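USER: Note each token:
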Amino acid sequence: MVSIWHDAAQAFGVGFPAPLQGLLFWVTASLVVHVCQRLVEHTAFSADPPSRRVSASHASLGIGCIVWALDVVGLFLYEELAHHAVALDLVPALSGLIIMAVSTRLTIPTLSTSARKLHIAMAGACLAAGMLLAHFTITQDLVRSFATVNWTAIVLAAAIALCLATWTSIRHRAVKMSVLTPHLLRRSWEEKAVCGAAILLLHWLLVNTFGLLSVPAGDTAHNSALLVCVLVFGTALAVEQLRNMHFDAGRQQLLRRGLSMMRASNMAHNPERDMQLSLIADRLHDLLQPDRLALHFQPIVDLRQPGVQFEALLRVKDPALGPLNPEIFLLACELQGRTGDVDRMILRNALDCLAAWREQGLLQITISVNVAPSTLLATGFSDWLRAELAQRAMPHHALRLEMTEHAVIALGAPMVDALQALGTLGIAVVMDDFGTGYSSLGMLADLPIAGVKCDRLFVQQLASDARRQSLLRHIGALTREFGLSVVVEGVETAAELQAVAAAGLHAIQGYLYSKPMASASVPAWYANEMQPRRKALQALLSHTTRAAAGSAAAAPVLSASRASGPDFLHSVHPSHS
């Protein structure tokens, strides 16, 4: 037993750091863990490929340099290495820095964005190997012989390095995935302190892996100067990386807001949505499959005319992420450069549904599909769409395209040319979310569009707000002068319907008339519910003789309709569907 203890003592020739030095290194290592986690999180929350590449490059170089500085500073912890640290040669030290930077550059992208635990584990192993190789390169001139190995130290060091890299990455993934749950996980300082303690133990094991040469005493002042230089280098780099990360996050936020306005004018942005966006970007390849992109259809009814139109609404569900917000999904596609692919998949799906309905005799149904401006402006889009319609023997007037107000107005002349090209095919384009942005009425007179859809923003508080009522009346009058159709979205209550009708508008879309439904449910709804629902709404309006009395007249009519048959009028908020 004494012999074994003696051999172990000889193998671990460098003693554990003194309490004060160990405490300072522990605190420093915990701060390094915090900075590295922030940099990795910033890379993970980038959604578009250019931002991911730039963020990964900055994070990798920053993490590599900071960890290298921490490794070099650690050499000053031990009394046995006090003179070895001064004797560090520049070439091995810089070689270790290069190895550390390369290993982080090759592994950080996978550790920050991969959704597969096996890939994360493999990248963690590569990063751990790079850390060990960098340390041994830095200290190679101080090693007496690489043939004499303390296997206990090197095995424990490799295990700790692997566990640190893999566990922090998997933990990071769990935090990122928690945005989909009611309880968002947060990285605690307790976790970072544990990682800092593990790094202290790891460093002590590494310096005991090989026997060290005897080095003559050096200049203490030079020793302190080198320590200060390395500390200043690491601290300055960490501060600069955090500052740049903050500014880059703002730049990415502006990019996302600008792109989202081209597709959904009322999309809000917050950190949780940004995390969801990055998760979707991680799994986008798997999501862009026809069986993952389902369509539901919500009726649009004109109470003065027969027939019905349906708007195709995207529904996305992922086995791991669950149901996804379509607006965030489409923004992820835009940032990843896949908007054209997903728009064409949606159009094919919608046209297939319409063709199936027409085969069942539903020849009066038309559909509208929202498309992105980049899709419409893509070379050959009009020819592609014409071929898809011809393949299904579909009349061109059966399809309408919707684009947001921002997209139609902001893109100017190229968009006008594209709209005119579609117009020559008989495919109408409607301006969606009208009035939510900075509409140019002068351009509205020149745009070759077939109609506008007023956002729910106009409907909110419409029944009690005389100014909103006046605004909606003038919009109706203006569009009639231009020969444009008008659809009012988001009509959910009887009072809102009465106020819309009082403004002279009769085409509505909303939960008051019908919720969105799956494609397979449309034929039965068309045969059994469309006309009763329309008649119930018409009966509601016929009992309204004055706008002031409209709300009072609505309740008995709704009660009568419920008593006489199915509940045709739904006043359910979309979030409860």
Observations:
- The first strand starts at residue 293 and ends at 302.
- The chain has two domains: 8-224, 271-531+570-576.
- Strands lie at 293-302, 309-318, 322-324, 366-370, 399-404, 428-434, 451-454, 485-489, 507-509, 517-518.
- The radius of gyration is 33 Å.
